[in-house]
Probable RNA-binding protein eif1ad (Phtheirospermum japonicum), 146 residues
Amino acid sequence: MQVVDLRGSNLIEVMDSKGEKLIAIFPAKFQKSMWIRRGNFVVIDESGREEAVESGRKVVGMVTQVLYHDQIRLLQKSSEWPEIFKSASQENEKQILPPRTSQQDDDDDESCSDDDGLPPLEANTNRLNPNLYVEPDSGSDTDNSD
């Protein structure tokens, strides 16, 4: 399932392979170890889904696993990946990775590629970049040379 919206209070809105939107709970024990955001793919335990819908509850499942980039790639190559998610995952990759130019490709061939197939690092939007100010040399070094 794909995360559509973060509702707060450990609740997330997800979309299943049929395009149906559901609300699931993100367990508190995972909050420090796994982070999710819109567009991520998760595995949800829906064992009590029918019972929850019949009783009128909105929360129909619980997140059991957040899928990583490599896991998503493997699933996309298999026949089990739903068609509705194929376009969504391609859009997410376009947002993360800027379009490459031929000059960038040439520069990358010359540089060392030690990424080991890891997904690209994302900018930390929680920190402000400090504005560094460097004072120009005022020539005080010549006064001390007597």
Observations:
- DSSP finds four helices and five strands in the chain.
- Confidence is low (pLDDT under 50) at residues 96-100.
